[in-house]
Amino acid sequence: MINVKGLKKSFGKNEVLTGIDVEIAKGEVVVVIGPSGSGKSTFLRCLNLLEQPTAGEIYFEDELITQRKYDIDNARKKMGMVFQHFNLFPHKTILQNLTLAPIKVKKTNPAEAEKIAMDLLHTVGLEDKRDTYPNQLSGGQKQRIAIARALAMQPHVMLFDEPTSALDPEMVGEVLEVMQKLAHEGMTMVIVTHEMGFAREVGDRIIFMDGGQIVEQGPPEQVFGAPTHPRTQDFLSKVL
Ligand code: ADP
Ligand code: MG
């Protein structure tokens, strides 16, 4: 589904991604871990072209999306992204938060958009919040709505950048539960997280990044159970 070749990204003289090669298959759940500043967010943001790569190629569903003439909006429509901070539209109801982009960007008819939105509110367990506003929700509820809003565009892949890092501890579980449900339904997901228990349980593959590159990757049992690279061992000894 996604094929990344020789991806590099610099900000000025600072080379933040120093050459990333990775393939992500349809239905795969890939969890990216690594120390702060290792380039995890930049990597995710390059995948959906929120950042323009400095070098390298990204294929998405067999299309070269890093070519100059490619319509970036086309990739963004098919890649949902959830951030640490939820960025819901404060002056729109929860239902409107979920229907706005499908109606405006995808030209979905409003009745159909509402039907999809209500199904998603059911999935995240917040049907009763349809007519309330974001500031009436807890952090965990806001993040569940942010996930539902991304899903409302019916993306082919979901990118998560530390979706639980800004939450109070008691709200982390409800968000991870929604993500786990998505994973079980076969959604292709790339997740940056510090929740190692979740990574181990839900990830098909763990990627450990350090210094702007992939240092080690493999199934969770391997990366967590028997990491081979000293930098992975060092990182895991600090977080586990
Ligand atoms: P991580 O998500 O692993 O913590 P980031 O991808 O956010 O790492 O950042 C990696 C490096 O890139 C950091 O040194 C950060 O300061 C730098 N960086 C990220 N975004 C920008 C930007 N927009 N402009 C300049 N430097 C940036
Ligand atoms: Mg980050």
From TrEMBL:
<comment type="similarity">
    <text>Belongs to the ABC transporter superfamily.</text>
</comment>
<dbReference type="Pfam" id="PF00005">
    <property type="entry name" value="ABC_tran"/>
</dbReference>
<dbReference type="GO" id="GO:0005886">
    <property type="term" value="C:plasma membrane"/>
</dbReference>
<keyword id="KW-0472">Membrane</keyword>
<keyword id="KW-0067">ATP-binding</keyword>
<dbReference type="InterPro" id="IPR027417">
    <property type="entry name" value="P-loop_NTPase"/>
</dbReference>
<keyword id="KW-0029">Amino-acid transport</keyword>
<dbReference type="InterPro" id="IPR050086">
    <property type="entry name" value="MetN_ABC_transporter-like"/>
</dbReference>
<dbReference type="InterPro" id="IPR030679">
    <property type="entry name" value="ABC_ATPase_HisP-typ"/>
</dbReference>
<dbReference type="InterPro" id="IPR017871">
    <property type="entry name" value="ABC_transporter-like_CS"/>
</dbReference>
<keyword id="KW-0547">Nucleotide-binding</keyword>
<keyword id="KW-0813">Transport</keyword>
<dbReference type="GO" id="GO:0005524">
    <property type="term" value="F:ATP binding"/>
</dbReference>
<feature type="domain" description="ABC transporter">
    <location>
        <begin position="2"/>
        <end position="236"/>
    </location>
</feature>
<dbReference type="GO" id="GO:0015424">
    <property type="term" value="F:ABC-type amino acid transporter activity"/>
</dbReference>
<keyword id="KW-1003">Cell membrane</keyword>
<dbReference type="GO" id="GO:0016887">
    <property type="term" value="F:ATP hydrolysis activity"/>
</dbReference>
<dbReference type="InterPro" id="IPR003439">
    <property type="entry name" value="ABC_transporter-like_ATP-bd"/>
</dbReference>
<dbReference type="InterPro" id="IPR003593">
    <property type="entry name" value="AAA+_ATPase"/>
</dbReference>
<protein>
    <submittedName>
        <fullName>Glutamine ABC transporter ATP-binding protein</fullName>
    </submittedName>
</protein>
